Amino acid sequence: MYLCDVHTHSLISPDSKAPLSAMAQAALSAGLKELCVTDHCDLLDWEGRPDGSFDWAAAKEQYRAVKTDLDGRLTLRLGLELGSAPFDPDMARVVIAGGGEELDFVLGSLHNWIGDQGNIDLYFSKFAGDGALCRKAMDNALSHAWELVTRYPDCYDSLAHVIYPLRYIRRDGMDLPLTDYEEALRAVFTQVAKTGHALEVNTHHGLDMGDWPQLLRWFKESGGELVTVGSDAHRPTDLAKGVPQALWLIKGAGFGYITTFRGRKPVTYPL
Ligand SMILES: [Zn+2]
Ligand SMILES: [Zn+2]
């Protein structure tokens, strides 16, 4: 199988201290064939303040240096994890344009509430004992996922961690049945498929594997073909965690290939 991890972070992200060289070394040790670095640009910061800054100069300098050092031992791609594009699509397009021709891949993410709870990152919400807030968070995330895939398809290539709120809902000892969101998810997946975009299987360093068989089944039934995989590693020790298992899950759900992106165009590899 084509071992690849196309959701990873480096010190360009505010929540990572890892040089890309260390992530690339970990990728080689894990036997990966392809690594894509997708540092964060969130149009809303952790506290909900608008912020369109991304240091492309530093990101590209680091990427070019590591690519040169690798000398072809590993395919390295330059990506971006763009958060909250529906909050300010014009700014999203400016950020993406800053990547120029070197930009291979854009992950579309929703880390923040939009239009509720002061637009804070879901990480800071307290879900314990508050089922109504849990449901509100899922509704908020899925309605903005719908907005992203229907109105701003140019602002993403692969839809990242579509059930992101569950990370923090479960952290706080709560849960929601995925089946309550089947209709909304199928609608989003149908749109992703129709527009030739990809769905991400996010392993969350191998911690979140259980929901993907169900989600992949719905995506497949919605006409989906392109699936990307990422560990969401923020440090070398987490790199590629859960990726081999995810590839088996994707194959098991009936997909014939895994997808990565080059120059924002999908490239497929048989599973
Ligand atoms: Zn993310
Ligand atoms: Zn991430």
Layout of strands and helices, then pairs:
Elements: E1 4-8, H1 20-29, E2 34-42, H2 56-70, E3 75-83, H3 89-99, E4 105-109, H4 131-151, E5 158-159, H5 165-171, H6 182-194, E6 198-202, H7 212-221, E7 226-230, H8 243-252, E8 257-262, E9 265-270
Parallel strand pairs: 1-2, 2-3, 3-4, 4-5, 5-6, 6-7
Antiparallel strand pairs: 8-9
Helix pairs in contact: 4-6, 6-7
The chain binds zinc ion (2 copies).
SSE topology string? EHEHEHEHEHHEHEHEE
Total tally of structural domains: 1
CATH class: Alpha Beta
Q: What's the architecture in CATH terms?
A: Alpha-Beta Barrel
The overall strand count is 9
Proportion of helical residues: 25-40%
**Structural classification:** alpha/beta
Spatial extent as radius of gyration: 17 Å
CATH topological fold name? TIM Barrel
What characteristic shape results from the CA principal axes?
A: globular
Taking all residues together, what is the mean pLDDT?
97
Number of contiguous helices: 8
Q: Unreliable stretches, pLDDT < 50, 5 or more residues?
A: none
CATH superfamily (homologous) name: Metal-dependent hydrolases
Describe the structure.
With 271 residues, this protein is an alpha/beta fold. The protein has a single domain, classed as Metal-dependent hydrolases (TIM Barrel, Alpha-Beta Barrel), CATH 3.20.20. Helices cover 36% and strands 19% of the residues. The protein contains eight helices and nine strands. It has a seven-stranded parallel sheet. The longest helix is centred in the middle third of the chain and has 21 residues. The model has no long low-confidence stretch (mean pLDDT 97). The site of one zinc ion has 4 residues, from loops.
